[in-house]
Recover the amino acids of this structure.
């Protein structure tokens, strides 16, 4: 009988290794032959460690299962291979039928939680490398066209059309070009990049290899935040396997084409998620933002044309090639095509990963998936898109996930992370936090961000202490205006988003309703 226990960091943090060891011990003690697969997480974090067993009707889930509960599982027919015998109180039925999973549209995360992440055979058995096999027979321009036609836009936050970026790099004349994957996932409440790297690393590797073929780049770097040791380990293991099997390195699938890939461990600065600071860091320098132009597509890594994309953007590519641009484009709304893996975090009953086509509303995510607040109190605000994203009030919960619809209400989809707060949140303190975050994480290159954020903290302290509030709120708005228009990169440009959204949507927390909403 085959038993699955996740190796994803969330499951590990909740005791998955101990549960797995107890299963092996128990099986041995009872003389039962089992095959233990350390799969990725299904993304239902409140159920981790989620143990699954293969039965005659499909995989059945149990969770959360702690070490001390394992013997009870075995007593309750766990290893019989029969679905009708799974009567343990923590049995959840067929995994695929759990509503949280069933209601999703998993295109990219289709293998996540199902396969052994570092098994190339498992990847191949689940539509792995079908996209690369198609791409290898295509002209570079045709690959770029396919990605353009799919409507894929950068999932790291900027939402720039991926195909257009690739076209610029393809058209640039150079002796060397690069693919750089931004895996410095630093936004609060986000973990979709981590799940791809830990739970389906071959998908990212395949996507980057296709990108290399598309723009004639022969070298690639994955810049992974240092706080993700399991991502780094799984990627490195998968890279070795892909090289050994001819899917990576020299002479890919006998085509004579080359693409080498290596992982770079980031140094722990939020600003290194900004694409040009990331390039500096990969080059071994301090993570300072570069002025643009020149565009990295023309002069990027080591001064050469470089495709920079985020993990989710690059790992959408194998699917686009294997199923075709039209298949992908058929999901979504408006100019937001395909799906987005959304990450539910903060004060929610059911936190986890939800992949849905664009068009799903915040309310559906918060209540149909998230189950409302964990505290049981009303959800008052949701910050979407990381620490520089806007706080959205209840009146905006029906906004569909769509880049343009979010922009129309002065918000951003960002990297698809949601952090929910109940009605005990103090929005003035959240606004102060945004300024403080910027002050700590600013690279220091430009004045509006470096000095503005520090002044912003001081102003917020005065507002919170009720010192001359009308004047301070006026000053705060002025300061935000300078930061938005005068900063060199998104760090300074976007810090005013959470600050102003807090002020505009929750004026009562700033003391003076009339001035706050002016
Ligand atoms: Fe650096 Fe901030 Fe200026 Fe960006 S906005 S370049 S992080 S100082």
């Amino acid at each position: 009988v085959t038993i699955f226990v996740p190796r994803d960091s969330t499951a590990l943090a909740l005791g998955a290794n101990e549960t797995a060891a107890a299963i092996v011990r128990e099986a041995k003690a009872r003389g039962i032959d089992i095959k233990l697969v350390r799969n990725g997480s299904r993304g239902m974090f409140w159920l981790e460690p989620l143990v699954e067993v293969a039965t005659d009707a499909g995989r059945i889930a149990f969770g959360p299962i702690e070490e001390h509960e394992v013997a009870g599982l075995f007593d309750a027919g766990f290893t019989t291979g029969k679905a009708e015998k799974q009567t343990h109180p923590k049995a959840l039925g067929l995994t695929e039928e759990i509503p949280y999973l069933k209601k999703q549209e998993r295109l990219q995360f289709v293998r996540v939680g199902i396969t052994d992440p570092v098994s190339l055979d498992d990847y191949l058995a689940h539509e792995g490398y079908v996209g690369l096999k198609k791409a290898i027979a295509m002209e570079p321009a045709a690959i770029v066209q396919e990605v353009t036609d799919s409507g894929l836009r950068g999932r790291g936050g900027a939402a720039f059309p991926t195909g257009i970026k690739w076209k610029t790099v393809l058209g640039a004349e150079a002796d060397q070009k690069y693919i750089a994957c931004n895996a410095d996932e630093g936004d609060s409440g986000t973990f979709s990049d981590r799940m791809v790297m830990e739970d389906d690393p071959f998908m990212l590797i395949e996507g980057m290899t296709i990108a290399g073929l598309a723009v004639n780049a022969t070298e690639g770097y994955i810049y992974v935040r240092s706080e993700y040791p399991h991502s780094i380990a799984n990627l490195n293991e998968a890279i070795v396997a892909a090289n050994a099997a001819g899917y990576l390195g020299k002479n890919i699938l006998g085509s004579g084409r080359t693409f080498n890939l290596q992982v770079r461990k980031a140094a722990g600065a939020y600003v290194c998620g900004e694409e040009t600071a990331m390039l500096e860091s990969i080059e071994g320098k301090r993570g300072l933002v570069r002025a643009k132009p020149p565009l990295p597509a023309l002069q990027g890594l080591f001064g050469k044309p470089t495709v920079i994309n985020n993990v989710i953007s690059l790992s959408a590519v194998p699917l686009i090639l294997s199923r075709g641009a039209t298949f992908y484009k058929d999901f979504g709304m408006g100019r937001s095509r395909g799906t987005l893996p959304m990450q539910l975090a903060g004060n929610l009953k059911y936190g986890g990963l939800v992949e849905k086509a664009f068009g799903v509303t915040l309310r559906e995510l918060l209540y149909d998936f998230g189950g409302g607040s964990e505290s049981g109190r009303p959800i008052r605000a949701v910050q979407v898109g990381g620490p520089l994203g806007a706080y959205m009030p209840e009146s905006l919960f029906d906004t569909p996930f769509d880049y343009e619809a979010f922009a129309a209400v002065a918000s951003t989809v960002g990297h698809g992370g949601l952090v929910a707060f109940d009605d005990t949140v103090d929005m003035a303190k959240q606004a102060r936090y945004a300024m403080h975050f910027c002050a700590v994480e600013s690279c220091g290159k430009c004045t509006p961000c470096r000095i503005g954020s520090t002044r912003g903290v001081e102003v917020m302290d005065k507002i919170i202490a009720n010192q001359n509030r009308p004047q301070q709120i006026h000053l705060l708005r002025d300061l935000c205006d300078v930061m938005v228009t005068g900063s060199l990169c998104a760090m300074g440009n976007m810090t005013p988003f959470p600050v102003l959204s807090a002020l505009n949507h929750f004026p009562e927390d700033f003391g003076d309703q009339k001035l706050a909403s002016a």
About this structure: The pocket of iron/sulfur cluster is lined by residues 271, 289, 442-446, 449-450, 487-489, 491-492 (CB under 6 Å).
